[in-house]
Amino acid sequence: MATTTTPTDLALTKWRQEYFLEYVRNHGFKPYMGAASEGVNAVIHTAMDLQPKGKTLTIPLVGRLTSSGVTGNTRLSGAEESLGKHSHSVTIQYRRNAIEFSAQDEHYDASNARDAARPLLQQWSQEKLRDDIIDAFHSVAFSGASVSTISTPLNSWNTISTSTQNNTWVAANSDRVLFGKLVSNYSATFATALGNIDNTDDKLTAAAVSVMKRIAKTCDPHIRPIRTNTEDGREYYVMFTGSIPFRDLKADSSIIAANRDARAREGNGMDKNPLFQDGDLIWDGVIVREIPEFPVFSNGTINCGMAVLCGAQAVAAAWGQMPRPTEKKETDYGFFTGAGIEEMIGVNKIMRKHGTLGTFKDNGCCTGFFAAVGDA
Predict the structure, then answer these.
(1) In whole angstroms, what is the distance from residue 28 CA to residue 225 CA?
(2) Whole-model pTM?
(3) If I label 199, which of 53, 73, 107, 160 is the partner at 20 to 30 A Cα–Cα?
């Protein structure tokens, strides 16, 4: 009697799919990632278009129409509006890691370290994807490759990017940045604008969240919300920020009052109230999510942190190859073995050409800088 067995390649495919789902799921950005048709309405636009071959993914971006058109007997011929077409590119590259075992160590090891290889490699992959996205949000110069102006490990905004890059970026994005609570803190010299932030008035507050939302809705081109309810006239954005600005926002009197007075009390209302439980904050149609790994950097006087209010298509993530398991072939007569992971990926901030200046403007981000003083 013949026994049916599962072919190795089918089992491997199932492993890769499960690994990929878990790898993408387990970090704070997952709810705001979208593939294919969802990507145009997601903060992080994901794509698999570079499978099985390809180096660079191009994402088309179309701007809204701004002409007044014509009225009455005025001829429309010759007064047509040109469509504002832009594109953004993401270049992918291989990323790999592995764990090596020797026969002697495995014989000595009572904990069976080989069984820990997969979860450790998965955690490494998750952290790399998370850091790629954080790096992308902090980028000030466009690059088609999966690199940004912040290196790994995450470091200071000022010490990684150059002053020229910072100034070029802040000038191009003057309609979608906020330094502290006041729009008037802005300067075309990035270091000057950052230096205008003080620890007394310029912490992240509910009022600052509302200002950034208004900026997102009025800047040109507008930052498209991730969700809209046209019947109710509601638009929703999401904000990511580090632990210290999130702490300050959570302690804001308006946020405390809203959670105390406006949140549901019946049923399991207390279980979902941020006054008692950890979780996202919601204010003025903005979902605020804490990302503890967001870096803190100095403006020369105090530490500052970034809060990025996002609409659709803020960051692009492209895969040319899903994560797949690898094995060490140079085994030294079977004595050394290894388990590894390999993927092909690119992540960067989506930017579009800014007018005729040849510089780049963030497509889906309104970026705020706030005081981030003290322990988290």
Answers:
(1) 19
(2) 0.81
(3) 160
Query: Which residue is associated with the tokens 């390809």?
Result: 54
Per residue in 265-318, pLDDT tens?
555 655 556 655 667 899 999 999 999 999 898 888 999 999 999 999 899 888
Q: 245: cis peptide before it, omega within 30°?
A: no
Query: Domain ranges in the chain?
Result: 175-313+356-371
CA distances to 69, 145, 320, 321, 322 from 94, in Å: 49, 11, 9, 8, 10
The residues facing 291 across adjacent strands are none
Distance CA 188, CA 193 (A): 7
Short-list 272, 286, 271, CA closest to 225: 286
Least Cα distance to 45 among 290, 242, 313, 339 occurs for 313
* Rounded alpha-carbon distances, angstroms, from residue 172 to 187, 192, 358: 12, 16, 10
Task: Determine contact, residues 200/180, Cβ cutoff 8 Å.
Answer: no
Could you give phi then psi for residue 242, rounded to 5 degrees? Answer: -80, 180
CA distance 335 to 350: 47
Cα–Cα dist 314/13, whole Å: 31
